Amino acid sequence: LVLVCTGLLHGPLHAEEATPWGRGYFPDTELVDQDGRHLRFFEDLIEGKVVVINFIFTGCGDSCPLETARLRQVQQLLGERVGTDVFFYSISIDPLSDTPEVLKAYAAKFKVAPGWLFLSGDKEQIDQLRRSLGLFIEGVDNGRSRDHNLSLIVGNQASGRWMKASPFENPWILADQLANSLQNWKQPSAEQSYAEAPQIRPPSHGEELFR
After folding, report:
1. What is the reported pTM?
2. 190: exposed, middle or buried (C-beta count within 10 Å: 0-12, 13-18, 19+)?
3. What is the pLDDT of residues 170-198, one digit of tens each?
4. d(CA 154, CA 121)
5. Which of 76, 89, 130, 133 is least enclosed, having the fewest CB within 10 Å?
């Protein structure tokens, strides 16, 4: 994993005050999900949340389906926590083709459960969003959809802890990061309790060693 940034919270500060990676850093891009809802990237999708973000296009015939299938395994491990205290976002880099209807059919093809949004929007704004996340590589992203960075971004916006991950990471490792490691950095809240949340087993020594 490549550590992008870290930040510790000291007291009940608002997320944008506690970390430089707040509203002033991320573009509040307007996106549309598979159900046709208009959502803002920062305000509606990531503010104060633990998230996993990737960029795909439904016309991809190789890496994107494998990536989606692997994330589906992670979603199954996390169960009902997805959409509650962990949020999955797959954003299309081919918005002209990937309409909400196309994205909805794609999600259904992979039997995606609730809590995982597939999103599209304006291509230039999506490219700007990818740049802010370090996933737009000049000279690689050359207008051909198949040439794009396959890394995931996982993070906790409230604490400012962000990192890149391989979409082909061991699903237990990724689930543990999302359900445990990143959650431990969240600002404590009396409204949140994970006492009854599904538990994710820690990865074995061998899984950690031979990642």
Report:
1. 0.78
2. exposed
3. 999 999 999 988 886 544 443 444 444 45
4. 21
5. 76
Total residues belonging to the chain? 211
Mapped onto helix, strand or coil, the DSSP state of residue 3 is: strand
Residues 6+ apart with CB under 8 A from 183: 50, 85, 156, 194
Between CA 133 and CA 154 the distance in angstroms is 10
Amino acid at 97: S
**pLDDT, position 207:** 46
Mean pLDDT estimate for the chain: 80
> What is the DSSP track for 163-184?
EEE-TTS-HHHHHHIIIIITGG
CATH of the domain at 102: 3.40.30.10
**Domain assignment present for 56:** yes
DSSP string across 19-45: -SSSTTTS---EEEETT--EEEIIIII
Question: In 3D, which of 181, 170, 152, 182 has the Cα closest to residue 211?
Answer: 170
Task: Name the one residue in this structure whose structure tokens are 């999955």.
Answer: 88
The answer to whether 5 is a known ligand-binding residue is no
- Name the more confident of 119 and 11: 119
In a domain, 191, yes or no: no
Quick: pLDDT tens for 77-134.
999 999 999 999 999 999 999 999 999 999 999 999 999 999 999 999 999 999 999 8
